[in-house]
Amino acid sequence: MSYRITSFDQYEKEYKESVENPEAFWAEVAGHFSWQKPWEKVLEWNFDQPDIKWFKGAKLNITENCLDRHLASRGNKLALIWEPNDPKERFIRYTYRELHQKVCQMANVMKRNGIQKGDRVCLYMPMIPELMFATLACARIGAVHSVVFAGFSAQALADRITDSNCKMVVTTDGSYRGAKEVPIKRVVDEALEDCESVQKVVVVERTNWGVALQEGRDVFYHEEVKLVSDDCPAEPMDAEDMLFILYTSGSTGKPKGVVHTCGGYMVYAGYSFQNVFQYDESDIFWCTADIGWITGHSYIVYGPLLNGATTLMFEGVPTYPDAGRFWQVCDKHSVNQFYTAPTAIRSLMAAGDEHVMSYSLNSLRVIGSVGEPINEEAWHWYNIHVGKERCPVVDTWWQTETGGIMISALGEHGPTKPSHAGYPLPGVQPVLLNNEGKEITENEVEGYLAIKFPWPSMIRTTYGDHDRCRNTYFSHYKGYYFTGDGARRDEHGMYRIIGRVDDVINVSGHRFGTAEIENAINADPHVAESAVVGYPHAIKGQGIYAYVICKKSPDNFDNLRAEITETVKQQIGPIAKPDKIQFVSGLPKTRSGKIMRRILRKVAEGEPDKLGDTSTLLDPKIVEEIVEGAL
Ligand code: PRX
Q1: What atom in ligand 1 is closest to the CA of residue 498?
Q2: Residue 531 has pLDDT above 90, yes or no
Q3: In which element (H, E) is residue 418 found?
Q4: Residue 449: strand pairing partners
Q5: Is there a contact between 589 and 596 (Cβ–Cβ < 8 Å)?
Q6: Which of 144, 68, 140 has the alpha carbon at shortest distance from 100?
Q7: I need a labelling partner for 179 at 20 to 30 A (CA). Which of 31, 297, 425, 493 fits?
Q8: Beta strands at 541-550 and 527-537: parallel, antiparallel or unpaired
Q9: Residue of the CA atom closest to atom 8 of ligand 1
């Protein structure tokens, strides 16, 4: 018996059961995991608070499910294959037994350095095996991990460490990304100038640069690990204890810490992995995301390991040393399931077909996409050149807040259609709402995408600010979880995600609040005010278009553009750099002072003839100036 769905008929049957009796459905799935103590109640919920409890009263440790329970039958099976940035460097493989030992050692190093159950630990690291060890080590001892993508700036790192009062940071000396070398430890040192909560920094050596340690605060992992045992008991956790915090952007200026808990997250990450990717026991699974994003949490670390899978972790970038790197890695390790983002697909498509044509890609069985809408051209290219029209393309829609894949085909089971995520997974009840918040029940309609019933891996709160969680997700439409996305349902009931309907932009699959980027731009001393919108970008999906009002007219606009870009890099990181900066003398505002972003969006999209009604503007003249100066 397993929870693997093996036909579309079975999917339809299970979907029906999961809606008619969700508690029985999820209890059955949860029964496939190992629990130290069974639950008293499968589900208690209330979307108004919100207050959601899955598997109440149960005790478990997710790492026992990821590691210990596989040791008897899969001890010598590969758990992790690590492929370095440079193809000339050797790759490393870890069996389940070895990974178990590495995680226990890392956990003991954390404990030795004062970490206890409930403490928050920030992981600011490149994609090296120790990042996976540290993630699981936190879970092992009941510490809460907050992984921060190592491309964020010192300021962004400091904000995230402070928001969740992290006691420890695990990091590296430096990192390799493509042709670049990044001084990771220097960023941490700068960030920690403002963070009082951090008592210890554990430094893993990756580049061997001989970085300086701060006396009393910093320790080297390779020295600490000599002092600890190979065994570390798994801390018993309540199903609703916090497993991790992951920061993501919303429509306000400050990123929020999305909180996931142990039991429900485990059940859904495990279940969705198995079914979407149709993993078979001897398969090699590769998700190209970074563990700093939810995709890496759920489908590099937890989902695969919960199923005893072999997961591949890649340190590098798709275009180094050339645009064939992904395909070379697929052939080298005989990858069976490959999971990446539309932005990567588009950039590799633009680099020319010859890169992909030089590899066989014979081992691939399922190919996936995540993070943003995949346009039809990219979908077809992926299907033809990578999947060879043999592999189903699973277009997986989900969010940091949903913890796992919500809408997708299940491997070859279920129809696929270009740019359509398809049908919801069992247990997921999506609806489309109209402007009045009423459910639209027909097909061939568009609306706001919401979910009307809880699923195990849903967000529980936003760290330190429960009101924010309620206001962002549960108060726009009473009784629903609101996703922030718009979607269309076709004549067969398949979902197509159109994109965000709030002030969030999705740049190369990375989420930013417009206000967050505006705050960063406004930190420049020459800037009086700014407004940021997204616009269609051929590779990135959306580009960042910034309208900037200067305090006084600059001597050189290009220099100021470069300076503002640098300020954004410092405030957030290079991934948030504006693509276009237009200097303006004013912004289109209503009489009540609200910026009419609709107008700015149309100008950025190159459609100034479709501005709509501008009669409520305080100063309609400003629109003419903006249209004339558009980039
Ligand atoms: O707008 C949707 C888009 O990415 C948003 C979630 O971003 P994040 O929390 O960073 O998680 C990304 C990885 C799960 C969603 O609100 N999105 C994600 N997947 C898809 C998508 N848009 C269209 N199609 C998808 N498959």
Answers
A1: 23
A2: yes
A3: none
A4: 432
A5: yes
A6: 68
A7: 297
A8: antiparallel
A9: 399
Helix (H/G/I), strand (E/B), else coil: 294: helix
> The tokens of 262 are what?
């142990």
pLDDT at 572: 96
Take residue 267 and report the two structure tokens written for it: 């059940």
* Atom number in ligand 1 closest to CA 395: 26
Give me the percent of the chain exceeding a pLDDT of 70.
Answer: 100
For residue 502, what are its two tokens? Answer: 């709030």
The fraction of the chain above a pLDDT of 90, given in percent, is: 94
Delineate the domains of the chain, giving CATH numbers in brackets.
8-57+241-499 (3.40.50.12780), 67-76+92-237 (3.40.50.980), 504-628 (3.30.300.30)
Q: Please tell me the predicted confidence (pLDDT) of residue 613.
A: 83
**399 CA to middle of ligand 1, Å?**
5
Contact 506, 499 (CB under 8 A): yes
Please list the alpha-helical segments (H only) found in 261-374: 262-277, 294-296, 303-306, 325-332, 342-350, 354-357
Confidence band, pLDDT 50/70/90 cuts, at residue 593 = confident
Mutate to test the pocket of ligand 1, among 511, 540, 542 (most ligand atoms within 8 A of CB): 511
Question: Which residue has a Cα nearest atom 12 of ligand 1?
Answer: 371
Name the DSSP class of 59.
E
d(CA 49, CA 129): 39
Residue bearing the CA closest to ligand 1, atom 23: 373
Name the average pLDDT for the chain.
96
Whole-angstrom distance, CA of residue 515 vs CA of residue 524: 15
Query: How far is residue 518's CA from residue 539's CA, in Å, rounded to a whole number?
Result: 23
Of 37, 203, 238, 233, the residue nearest 118 (C-alpha): 238
Q: Residue with the nearest Cα to atom 21 of ligand 1?
A: 372
Distance 397 CA to ligand 1 centre (A): 6
Please give the number of the atom of ligand 1 that sits closest to the Cα of 504: 1
Distance 385 CA to ligand 1 centre (A): 24
Phi, psi for residue 147 in degrees, rounded to 5: -85, 125
> Vertex 520, ends 518 and 523: CA angle to 5°?
110
Residue nearest to atom 25 of ligand 1 (CA): 397
d(C-alpha 316, C-alpha 538), whole Å: 23
Residue burial 252-264, b: 16+ Cβ < 10 Å; e: rest: beebbbbbbbbbb
Q: Average of pLDDT values for 420-424?
A: 98
**Among 350, 430, 338, residue whose Cα is nearest residue 392:** 338
pLDDT in tens, 382-421: 999 999 999 999 999 999 999 999 999 999 998 999 999 9
What are the respective helix, strand and coil percentages of the chain, to the nearest 5? 35, 25, 40
What digits encode the pLDDT tens for the residues 124-136?
Answer: 999 999 999 999 9
Matching residue, tokens 């346009």: 375
pLDDT (0 to 100) of residue 615:
82
How far apart are the C-alpha atoms of 591 and 595, rounded to whole Å?
A: 10
What pLDDT sits at residue 1?
56
What local confidence, expressed as pLDDT, does residue 258 receive? 98
Nearest one of 419, 398, 418, 394 to 408, comparing CA atoms: 394
